[in-house]
Design brief:
95 residues, mainly beta, 5-stranded antiparallel beta sheet, two-stranded antiparallel ribbon, elongated
Length: 95
């Protein structure tokens, strides 16, 4: 498997600052919760994740997460959710 980068961006479209509560993000791979993703949430984050101002965004990128998410060649469907809100489904082809 070549180099794969997994990234997410969160934007506050509300009228007040929010705590994005990073531990509440859930990633499903082919409809199943990803243990690899839940462990990837550990670690230090900039303070903006915990008080994201109105109209601003924050992002995070993982360079080595793909090897845990994609065990073999094939088609994978990824869906990120947070507090019941679902991001669009993303299809990934791994060769």
């Amino acid at each position: 498997m070549g180099q794969v980068r997994i990234a997410m961006q969160v934007r506050n479209n509300g009228s007040e600052p929010i705590n994005t509560e990073p531990h509440l993000f859930d990633l499903k791979v082919n409809g199943e919760p990803s243990m690899v993703w839940s462990l990837a949430g550990n670690g230090v984050r900039e303070s903006k994740w915990f008080a994201l101002p109105q109209g601003e965004s924050v992002s995070r990128t993982w360079e080595s997460l793909a090897t845990g998410l994609f065990q073999a060649a094939g088609t994978y469907q990824l869906q990120l959710s947070w507090k019941g809100k679902m991001a669009p489904l993303v299809t990934v082809e791994v060769e």
